Amino acid sequence: MTAREKILPVLTILAALLALWYAAAVFLNAPFERDTAARAGTAITFSEIVPRTMAQARPVLPAPHQVISELWDTTINKPVTSKRSLVYHAWITLSATLVGFGLGTLLGIALAVGIVHNRAMDRSLMPWIIASQTIPILAIAPMIIVVLNAIGISGLLPKALISTYLSFFPIAVGMVKGLRSPEQIQLDLMRTYNASPSQLFWKLRWPASMPYLFTSLKVAVAIALVGAIVGELPTGAVAGLGARLLAGSYYGQTVQIWSALFMAAGLAAVLVLIVGAAHSAVLRRMGARP
Q: Phi and psi at residue 131, in whole multiples of 5°?
């Protein structure tokens, strides 16, 4: 497949989405312009409405160029140490994301190893792990924040724990599947070599679980970012992407909200790409074919 065949479909979809976005911006923002004209006692035509809907200060749906302009202003034109810089707020959220993702990875792998090697844990713990994810994070996040603040724990750790709560689940489930992926004939062959349980784990189960682990990590790192953002909402945080969303909702700054959402989406995409690059590097070291 050539580069043109890869890029052209993506550009076509993006162009269609942009056209739909602009049409929706005109449709949703037009009532405000009509109401403004009616209060002023003047008539307004559709050709006059369209450009005005593209430049409203507080639109219902910002136009794409407004979001891009806000992103440029808050990432390039502002110093990274400024509290108006999205880079500054993204770093605050990213720090909690990475801590929570690291804790979630360790917890998920530890639980998976215990479940695979202990039948009691498999039958008792696995249902609870699945049931834990049925609780909406928006409901449990305030409780975690309030309880930890009551015992003097605040700042980075509470947000990281919410990210841990979300990210450990796909890793635990994926690793359980991965550690059990070797076929029975492979397990029997290792036993004919008189392999110990630790050798069976490190030489067969662990290498076989790598594709499952990195697939789970891609999901986990994205939802860890969501957890960090959600963790900033009930605290009334003044820094972080969640704080930008909260401030935007307080003051009706929809352009600010959308720019923060796009920054979060871009940050999640970069994190997933980094995990994907690590996946490829590990598979190459393990002898996988390109």
A: -65, -30
In whole angstroms, give the CA distance from residue 169 to residue 128.
11
Residue in the structure block whose two tokens are 């400024």:
82
Report yes or no: 91 and 103 within 8 Å, Cβ to Cβ. no
Model confidence pLDDT, tens digit, residues 113-163: 999 888 888 888 888 888 888 877 777 777 777 777 777 777 778 888 888
Cα–Cα dist 54/280, whole Å: 43
Do residues 267 and 94 make contact, with C-beta atoms less than 8 angstroms apart? yes
Tokens 């794409």 sit on residue: 64
Tokens matching residue 12: 């076509």
Distance, in Å, from the CA atom of 79 to the CA atom of 156, rounded to the nearest integer, reads 23
Longest dimension (CA), the chain: 91
pTM of the predicted protein model? 0.85
Around Cβ 92, how many Cβ atoms within 10 Å?
22
Q: CB of 255 within 8 A of CB of 59?
A: yes
Q: How far is CA 288 from CA 13, 186, 204, 278, in A?
A: 33, 19, 15, 14
